[in-house]
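Late entry, 1-deoxynojirimycin complex.
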Amino acid sequence: MTDWWRSGVIYQLYPRSFADSDGDGTGDLRGVTARLDHLAGLGVDAIWLNPCFPSPNADWGYDVADYLSVDPELGGDAALDALIAAAGERGIRLLLDLVPNHTSDRHPWFEESRSSRDAPRRDWYVWADGRDGGPPNNWKSVFGGPAWTYDEPTGQWYLHNFLPEQPDLDWWNEDVREAFDGILRHWFDRGVAGFRIDVAHAIVKDAELRDNPPADESDPSRTRRFGQRQVYSMNRPEVHDVFRRWRAIAQEYEPERVLIGETWVFELERLARFYGEGSDELHLAFNVPFLLSPFEPETLAEIVAATEAALPGEAWPVWTLSNHDVIRFPTRWCTDHPARIRCALLLLLTLRGTPVLYYGDELGMPQARLARSDLRDPVGLRHWPLDPGRDGARTPMPWADEPGAGFTEPGVRPWLPIADAHAVNVASQRGDRDSVLSLARDLITLRRELPDLATGAYERLPTHEGTWAWRRGERIMVAVNACDEPRAVGGVRGTIRVATDRSRDGEGVSGELALGPWQAVVIAGP
Ligand code: NOJ
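Prediction complete; structure with ligand written out below:
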C-alpha cells in the first residue's frame, strides 16, 4: 500500500487564525474540530498545526515554554485529544509543529540554565565568553542584530539564531537529545501522526563556534542578506545524526510516524541529504527554491527536474506555495489574478510529490495588507516599513461574508484583522462550481480516482515557451499555459477531467490542445 504521506494532501493551518470557538478573538483547537467538515469535504489527508504548545508568544508559538502540553488559550490537552479523535473519524491525521532549535527564554530549562554558571542545565544551551568586549563571534540573528545576548548576572553570552526570547539549545548535549526523544514519543503515543520540524537545517551549530565567512556573489543561498554564509551558525552536517535517531523512533510506531523538515536550503543536493541514505532520515523536506521561485514555467520546470534528479531512490518531493512565513501565493505568484491562481493550484495538486496547502489557499485567499498598528509579528514590528512582517499571511480564515466572518462572534475583535471576507469566503465558494474551492476539491478527488495523478512518475513533455506540460504515469497528462497569449500543446489524446476553465471539463482532445491565456488542464488518456 502506498504511504499516505506520498499519495495524500497535507493542509497547514495556523490555529490562532482558523476558527474561534469561545469568542475571545483567537482561534483554538475546538474551533478546528468544529470546522473539520470543511477539510473532509476538501479531501485532505492530514492537518499540520502551527505550534500549539504553551508559549509567551514572543514569536507566536515558536517560543515554546512546555513541549508536553497544549496551550490553554488554544484549548489545552483535552481539545487536542478531541481534535485527534474527530479528525481520525474522518480519516484525517494530525501533525504537530516541533521546535527543537530553541525554546522560550521562559522555558524552565532556560530559566535554570541562566540561573548560574554551575546550573545542572547550563550546558543545555549555547553559552560562551565574549570576544574583545563584544559577542563571542560574528553570527547574526535571522531576525536582525547579533545572534548573541549578554547575560549580566552570569557574565556570559547566549546564542539565539532568532529572537533573544528564543535561546538556542545545544544539540551536542546528549541530555537535550534524550529530552527530545521523550517529547517525540509523548506525542506519537498520543496519536499524533508526525511532526513538521522547525528550522530543521539549523539545530546543530559548529562545536567551535567559528565565525561565519563573508558571503559573496557566487553564494547560491539568500544568506547574502546577512552579509555572511551561515555555515557555522547552522547548516552543520552533524544534524543528520539527529534525524537518523528520530526516524528510528518514528519507525517504532505503526503506522510509522512522519517527519517533515523545514529545510531552508537553496541547493537541491543539500536538500536531498535530509532524506538520508536508504530513507533513514526525514520523510519529506520542504523545497524552498520551488516556494520562492517566480511563477515562470521554465524556472519551475527546471527546479522540478533538478529536484527529481537530486532526490535519492525512494525519496519523495513535497511542494508548497504558501506558508505562515511568506506572502500568500495568490498575491506573490499570481498578482491576485484569478486565472493565474487557478493554474498555480492545479500544478501544485498534480506534480509528483506531496502537496501542502496553507489554509485559505483553497479559496485563492490573497495576502492581507495591514496597518502598522495591527501588527503582531515581531519581524514586522522590528522592521516596518522595510519589511511588514508575516501577519498579512496569518489573518483569520474567512468562512462567510458576515460580521466576524464566521471566524469569531460578531463584535469581537480578532487577534489579527479579518481581510476582505466579502471578496473571498468559504460559504459563497462552497456551492459554486466555478469557485477556486470547487477546483481544489475536484483536483483532490481526481487524485483519488486516478492514483497515477498522486503517485505516478513525472515526465516533462516538450512544449512551446510559456507553457509547461508533463505526463503522470502512463495515461495522465497535465498542461499549463502560463502566459497571456493562447498556446497549443501537441500530441494529446484523451478527455479533460478537470480544467481551470470549468466549461472545458469533459472535452475530448485528439492531437492539438488549444489553451487560452492562463488555462491549465488535467487529461486522462484512453
Ligand atoms: C521558522 C518558522 O516557520 C517561523 O515562523 C519562526 O519564526 C522561526 N522558524 C523561528 O522559530
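The mean pLDDT is 97. Will revisit in the morning.
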